Amino acid sequence: MSEHRTTTEKPRLARQAMCDRLAMEFQDGWIVNLGVGMPTLCSNYVDPRKSLIFHSENGAIGYGPLASAETADRYLVNAGGQQVTAVPGMAIVHHADSFGLIRKGMVDVTVMGAYEVAENGDFANWRVPGRKGGGIGGAMDLAACAKRVFVALEHTTREGEPRLLKRCTLPITAPGVVKLVVTDLGLFELTPQGFKLREHAPGWTLDEIQALTGARLSAADDLREFRLRASREPR
Amino acid sequence: MKNKIYRTFDEAVADVPDGSVFMSPGFGGVGIPRNLLAAVNRQGAKGLTGISNNAGTVDAKVDVGTLIAAGQVKKMCCAFTATPHPSQVTAFVRMYNNGEVDAELIPQGTLAERIRAAAAGIGAFYTPASVGTELAEGKEHREIDGKVYVLEYPLHADYAFIRAWKADTFGNLQFRLTQRNFNPIMAMAARITIVEVENDIVPVGELDPDQVHVPGVYVDRLVRIPPDGIWD
Known about the structure:
The complex is a heterodimer. Chain A is of the alpha/beta class. Chain A has helices spanning 15-24, 95-103, 139-145, 206-211, and strands at residues 31-34, 53-56, 60-66, 84-92, 109-113, 116-118, 123-124, 149-152, 164-165, 178-183, 186-191, 194-200, 217-225. Chain A is globular. In chain B, β6 and β7 form a beta hairpin.
């Protein structure tokens, strides 16, 4: 979504490009759990060289792409309640077993949205200021137990405030777990020294991205332009 | 053998007293016992405590939110006490913000395991979920083999309202695809388990024992959903 950008700014990355980039990191055979909202776009990036197993909290292990009107089955939904397709080899378990799989550490990567990410690997995605209560869902279980936590979020708030910070201001979902962050300005790795910019959005410099970031950025030795889905890559 | 088959949802929930604790499964709009919840709404029991993944959605369908909106619920134990977007204001969110209903916010995996613990006679368990967050504050922590966990207790209930795909007259149950979600663990956790069934309730012996998701010993009451019942 780019509607809220200030008009004087250079173009930023689209949500699908952000999620494509995270999906490029997935490895053959990984069990992948995609959070509700933007992260589900990761499943639109299909690499025929890799076989992924999509897991959802409601107990579907190995489900397929979103269903069309013809293939929809109202008994089969993903974590966002979207109707998905069955693929050969899929298995169904109940909710406690589904989270047993998560807590055992079998999920290779979980991709989540967030309001804030901090340079110490904390992130916050369940409560916003001024609202009582929150929406945790399975985020705390996944964040604490998945092998890798990737986060996709807009680089700044609607008001232009940074979302990549020294420390989270909102209540966190899990401490010190985030490994990789994609924003509409680039790809960032979490290191003991904080955020390391690996890839920048086309036309954006490290200094320009730093100016919109609430923590110190370092540059990867091989800092490069953001990898986009090549036109020859399958849709 | 005691007859478990009830003719109507209203008869099946007639004895639910004020102040009961109930479990209501469902996830992503699938596997929700809408007919039984509608019957509890008509029956009018008050002061209820609900255990469910969420506290109702913005759609107009019958769910836990129907009981909340009617003032029948005093507390919810759930994984969502806010809607995904502030523009979505459910009856629960409005009443929670006004202090008219209480809530305990629980990570979804912890919620499921607390229900399973009740179903399995477990006194408590340690989980890594929520460690280092405000939800773990005040809870007993323990380091086991270098990893920190928090202690969580079972969630017990007086009633479970269950939605099943198939059942036999003894109460053996089957679910279809992600309809299963919280249904089996809630059916096995509650003191009294009441089931709405989508297909004709078959004689015992017709369900393959290897394909039973909830054994009938956990099930007390069964109602076949009639053609004019709530189907989606």
